Amino acid sequence: MGNKAGARHTQKLFWLLAGLTAFLPACREETAPPDLPEAAAIQEAFAESNKRILALENEAIDDFIQRFGWEMQQTGSGLRVKIRNEGRGEKASYGQRARIRYTVYLLTGDPVYSSEQRGPLEFTVGRGGVERGLEEGILLLREGAEAVFIMPSHLAHGLPGDGRAIPKRATIVYELELLELQ
């Protein structure tokens, strides 16, 4: 009885494969490909979308600044800077080791990181490892300066966030003091 059941199974499998073989060529009829937008049109749509997102982010930053009544300078990259204390030391330059005391906030006002929890932050200016906006802003300061930097997402942690406390596309606010330059 085992051989008969096996033969029937093989026969069913044969007819199934034969039917599929006959059916598949009919599925492969030549059809025109769907109309796809040209690459230039796609790039233009992405550019327009990015402009709208940037405009909304700038509105949120402007509202935040207005809420606090701050006067801030804006750099060409979009970094907003308010220097609260000019400091007395030398001005920061590329290659120097900077040590800062800081608190990082979201635009909601929620603190996310601070030197109270993590200790002062040390980095070499111009070598990466910190937000682009922080490196850009530090170059505007002298040792001992106190400042506020508002970094749009493209100068902070960008589209993905930092994977911990800073969400996707988040604008961040740095309140900091430049403690030392070496």
Can you tell me about this structure?
- There is one protein chain.
- The protein is an alpha+beta fold.
- The protein has a domain at 71-181: Chitinase A, domain 3 (Roll), CATH 3.10.50.40.
- It is built from four helices and seven strands; from the N terminus they run ααββββαβαββ.
- The protein has helices at 2-27, 39-68, 115-118, 132-138, and strands at 73-74, 80-85, 97-106, 111-114, 121-124, 146-151, 172-181.
- Strands 1, 2, 3, 4, 5, 6 and 7 form a seven-stranded antiparallel sheet that branches.
- The termini are far apart.
- The mean pLDDT is 88.
Quick overview:
The protein has 182 residues and is an alpha+beta fold. The protein contains four helices and seven strands; from the N terminus they run ααββββαβαββ.
Shape: elongated
Q: Describe the sheet with the most strands.
A: 7 strands, antiparallel
Average pLDDT reading: 88
CATH architecture of the domain at 71-181: Roll
SSE class: alpha+beta
Alpha plus pi helix count = 4
CATH topology grouping of the domain at 71-181: Chitinase A, domain 3
Give the H and E element order: HHEEEEHEHEE
Q: What is the first-to-last residue Cα distance?
A: 89 Å
